Amino acid sequence: MEPVYFQDGNYIYECKSSPEQQGGPLNDRSLKIWTEDVKKLLDEQQPTAFRYIFPVNRLDNSNRIVLEKLKKDYSHVDIQYYDCDSVDNLIKALEKVKSLPGLVEYIKQARK
Q1: What is the distance between the alpha carbons of residues 88 and 90, in angstroms, rounded to a whole number?
Q2: Domain range spanning residue 49?
Q3: What total number of domains does the chain contain?
Q4: How far, in Å, are 16, 30, 42 from residue 2 at the CA level?
Q5: Which sign does the torsion angle of CA 63, 7, 21, 38 carry?
Q6: Which end of the chain is more exposed for a tag (fewer CB within 10 A), N or C?
Q7: What distance in Å separates the CA atoms of residue 87 and residue 108, rounded to the nearest whole number?
Q8: What is the pLDDT of residue 79?
Q9: What DSSP character marks residue 27?
Q10: How far, CA to CA in Å, does 69 sit from each of 2, 8, 65?
Q11: 67-107: per-residue pLDDT in tens?
Q12: Is residue 36 classed exposed, middle or buried when 0-12, 13-18 and 19+ CB atoms within 10 A define those classes?
C-alpha cells in the first residue's frame, strides 16, 4: 500500500497497512523498507513529531523491535506508533480536539 500522509503543524502522520495480513502482524521485511523511507522523510521534513499508524494490522515483538530502533535512531523526533488495537484511542483523541478529520475518516475507511 502506498503511504498516505497527513500533516498538522509540525506533526506528520503516516498510515500504512498490509491488507492481506488484516488483523495480523506486518511483514518484517516490508516494515524495514518502510522505515527506511520514513528516515528519508524525517531527514527532509524535520518534523517535531511523527505518528506511524497501522489501522488494520497488529504489531508483534519483531515489528516493535524495528519501530523502537527507528525511535532510537531519531530520538530528536517524538515518534509514536499505533496498531489496530490502539488506533481507536488515537481516533478518540483526534475527534475530541477536532484535529485532522481527514485522517480520522481515512482510518475509519481503511478498517471497513
Answers
A1: 5
A2: 4-110
A3: 1
A4: 7, 12, 17
A5: negative
A6: C
A7: 10
A8: 97
A9: P
A10: 22, 25, 6
A11: 999 999 999 999 999 998 898 888 888 888 788 888 888 88
A12: exposed
CA distance from start to end of the chain: 16
Contact of 73 with 50, CB cutoff 8 Å: no
CATH number of the domain residue 22 falls in: 3.30.750
The residue among 100, 98, 31, 102 whose CA lies nearest residue 62 is: 31
Please report where in the chains the cell 511523527 appears, as a residue. Answer: 50
* Model pTM score: 0.82
Q: Looking at this protein, which amino acid is placed at residue 65? A: I
Count other Cβ atoms within 10 Å, centred on residue 34. Answer: 20
Give the span between the Cα atoms of 45 and 17, in whole angstroms: 22
Average pLDDT, the chain: 89
Grid-cell match 502522520, residue found: 13
User: Could you tell me if 66 and 28 are in contact, meaning their C-beta atoms sit under 8 angstroms apart?
Assistant: yes
Query: Does residue 109 have a pLDDT over 90?
Result: no
Handedness of CA 94, 61, 85, 26 (dihedral sign): positive
